[in-house]
Amino acid sequence: MSGVEQSGGVDPSVDPEGYVGDLIRQYIKPGTVEAVIRTVVPIAVGGVLAWVAANYNLLVPEGASSTVVVVVTGAVTAGYYTLARALEQRFPRLGRWLIAFNLVKARPLYAPPAVAGAAEGRHRAADVDLGAPYA
């Protein structure tokens, strides 16, 4: 019997998924993957829209400097995200598609930040509704 088997631990060569899964749960907080998806999708869509705008001279004049292209890309990405979030508030299912390609089933819930002195009872964090599951 190996030392791993005797100690009751999981041998990574026998159960790699369980071992990796344990590592992931140990180091990645719940909701992190969902938050990353909700961040990356609007950036990718904004980048594609800006590329189309630059290559078809929609927002960027022909021969414009790379600085102009970068600024337009940032503006298009921010505009897309802002519009998608506004639509998400009114039409949650549409927002789920625009922001996460329907890969995430609910908006992430974030806890209010800890307030200095809360442990001593001098301050109390406000109750804030920072999101809710989709209807």
Number of strands: 0
Radius of gyration: 22 Å
- Major sheet summary line: none
Series of secondary-structure elements, N-terminal to C-terminal? HHHHH
Shape: elongated
Task: Tell me roughly what share of residues is in helical segments.
Answer: 55-70%
Strand content of the residues, in percent?
under 5%
Count of DSSP-assigned helices: 5
In the predicted model, the low-confidence regions spanning at least 5 consecutive residues are 1-7, 122-130
Class from secondary-structure proportions = mainly alpha
Description:
The chain has 135 residues and is an all-alpha fold. It has a domain of 73 residues. Helix content is 56%, strand content 0%. The protein is built from 5 helices and no strands. Helix 4 runs antiparallel to helix 5. The protein is elongated and about 55 Å long. The N and C termini lie far apart (53 Å). The N terminus is likely disordered.
Summarize the structure.
This protein has helices at residues 3-7, 16-27, 32-55, 66-90, 92-100.
How does the SSE layout of this entry go?
Layout: H1 3-7, H2 16-27, H3 32-55, H4 66-90, H5 92-100
Helix pairs in contact: 3-4, 4-5
List keywords for this structure.
single chain, 135 residues, mainly alpha, 56% helix, elongated
